[in-house]
Amino acid sequence: MRKRSQRVRAALAVVSAVLLGVAGCDGGDGSAPAPDGTRAHAPRPPLWDRSPDSVAAVGDSITRGFDACTVLSDCPEVSWATGDDAGVDSLAVRLLGAAGAAAHSWNHAVTGARMADLPEQMEQAAAHEPELVTVMVGANDACRSSASAMTSVSAFRTDFEEALGTLRSTLPKTQVYVASVPNLKRLWSEGRTNPLGKQVWKLGICPSMLSDADDLTSTAMLRRDSVQQRVVAYNKVLREVCAKDRRCRFDDDAVYDYRFGTDQLSHWDWFHPSKDGQARLAEIAYRRITARNP
Question: β-pairing, 55-59 with 132-136?
């Protein structure tokens, strides 16, 4: 009789365990659990807003519109990011309209800036509490007095991470668009077809790539290749660091890959973008920022 009672208690314990297991795995209302991969989730708001209502720009002379209007001068009104020139149709104008861009966009780029200058610029941009910050910087890190003077890849990475960290310390939800560094070797191959351009380059424009433009010796070509490889490495850093931030979009090398010609280059220095080149940069950025998926 005692053994029978023990068997009954053991059976009841098994049944209880089964029932408790079912109760713990159902949908919470007594219904059977949904198969894996089919459970309903409440929709979450998208992380990326394709229509931000304010824009701040950081970067270098390209974003300042340098040499696009007059020689050796900034021309922010034609900036691809925040300008108000109708022929450029800047990113800010495309996103906010002309009136909105005038009131809610800010340009903190500085001609000659390198990646090391970006944290300070980012701090200035963050003071406006923009919903979007655009970044275009890196050409001056490669355009040095010589190839050996270029910013190291590790320093470039450290400074970019610091710049994003500066923004995130005060604005964790602000979106960031990062443009790739332009193809400097293509710039050399396009600009060297113009005799005036080569004369201007002799004044010291991007000597690591553009000095002795007609020198096609193996030494000169190796120098240009090393600069180009550094630009590729910089873009890899931009991609990797941006990918770690859920509210950052890299342009997927769209600026680097753009097949620009002399019409997109300033006819003052055959290096910086012309108004037409600025318009192409605005178009690339707008497509990337308003894309449904990165």
Answer: parallel
Distance CA 3, CA 11 (A): 13
What's the chain's length in residues? 294
Q: Give the rounded distance of the alpha carbon of 125 from its chain centre.
A: 15
- Letter string b/e over residues 8-43, b meaning 16 or more CB atoms within 10 A of that residue's CB: eeeeeeeeeeeeeeeeeeeeeeeeeeeeeeeeeeee
| Cβ neighbourhood burial of 233 (10 Å; 0-12, 13-18, 19+) | middle
Instruction: Write the CATH number of the domain with boundaries 55-290.
Output: 3.40.50.1110
Taking each helix axis from N to C terminus, what angle separates 118-126 and 153-170, rounded to the nearest 10 degrees? 10
**What is the C-alpha separation between 284 and 275, in angstroms, rounded?**
14
pLDDT tens for the chain, 294 residues: list them: 444 444 434 444 433 433 333 333 333 333 344 444 444 454 545 689 999 999 999 999 999 999 999 999 999 999 999 999 999 999 999 999 999 999 999 999 999 999 999 999 999 999 999 999 999 999 999 999 999 999 999 999 999 999 999 999 999 999 999 999 999 999 999 999 888 888 999 999 999 999 999 999 999 999 999 999 999 999 999 999 999 999 999 999 999 999 999 999 999 999 999 999 999 999 999 999 999 886
User: What are the extents of the domains in the chain?
Assistant: 55-290
- Ramachandran angles phi, psi of 131, nearest 5°: -85, -20
